[in-house]
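Researcher: Good morning. I'm working through a list of sequences from a screen, and I'd like to move beyond sequence-only analysis. For each chain I'm collecting a predicted structure so we can compare shapes side by side. This is the next one on the list. No need for commentary yet; just the structure.
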Amino acid sequence: MTRVKILYTLTGMFFVAVLFQNCGGIAFEAQDSASRGIASLDLGSSTKLDCQFIGTQSMHQRLATLLGINSGDISILADDGTQTSEMRIEKSKTDLGDADPAQGLLQNLSCGMTKYKISAEVFIDACTVGMNSPSQKQLLFPQGETNFDLLYMALIGRSPTDYERGVLMELSATLPPEKRAMGVCAAVASSLESLIKI
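Model: Good morning. Structure tokens for this chain:
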């Protein structure tokens, strides 16, 4: 299993375990986790969710200030972890809701699965890069990789609940020590609660 599939699986497990209980009006449906590895969000006509996607400007700001990615965008990573020349947010900016006057598209920050999927990929790759920097890791985990408070405050705006701490501790325990900060960062940064405003 590749690094990306492992992170998608772990993120999907965290997403379903924690955010299902926090977003009662949203219908979640687990997709074939062996092949897709990520939870699916059903925003069909039977479910009304009054929320707004954070948008590319907030994504750029988080990448630059929290993860030390000065450009505010992340290269698409190959399966071996090497960076390609293609920038992930720039490539997907209209799918992420940016306006494109040349194509007659207005800004659209409504919630949707495509935005969630692309954003999750962005933040998983960004956490992979950012948590390889000791200074960035220290910024988000100043009291060690098992203290999730600052990470939560920076990305979600609140402290984790005891239940969320427990889930993150379990996630952390499943990863090799050198990958723990990356896995926890990816799970929280790509979570639904981090990517939308309700």
